[in-house]
Amino acid sequence: MEKREKTGGRKKNSPNKTTTEIKNLFIQVLGANMDTIQKDLDEMPGKDRLAALLKISSMVIPKPIEPVNIDEASKSNFEMIQRLFSNKND
């Protein structure tokens, strides 16, 4: 299937306004309930407290982008393509 030209919607790499609004609302709710949340966290066992903090943080902090690893097959394919193009220019 061939790619069609994008004619509407968000521009590439532009933020999703709804996601941003929901994230901001969630941050406000967390801030307004910080004392209660802290009290609940203090009463949890360490393992459960860590799990809860990780779940909460995943809703507010963006996940890191994992680096792309190039395996040996990809390296050899890349090198072969480089040789092909360098031979064309000769």
Short description:
By secondary structure, the chain is an all-alpha fold.
Q: List the total number of helices.
A: 4
Shape call = elongated
Q: Gyration radius, to the nearest Å? A: 24 Å
Q: Give the biggest beta sheet.
A: none
Instruction: Give the low-confidence spans.
Output: none
Order of helices and strands: HHHH
Mean pLDDT level: 79
Helix content: 55-70%
Distance between the termini: 35 Å
Strand content: under 5%
User: Which structural class is indicated by helix and strand composition?
Assistant: mainly alpha
Tell me the total number of β-strands. 0
What does the secondary structure layout of this molecule look like, with pairings?
Elements: H1 17-32, H2 34-43, H3 46-60, H4 72-88
Structure description:
The chain is mostly helical and 90 residues long. It has a domain at 17-63. It contains four helices and no strands. It is elongated. The mean pLDDT is 79.
Which tags fit this structure?
90 residues, mainly alpha
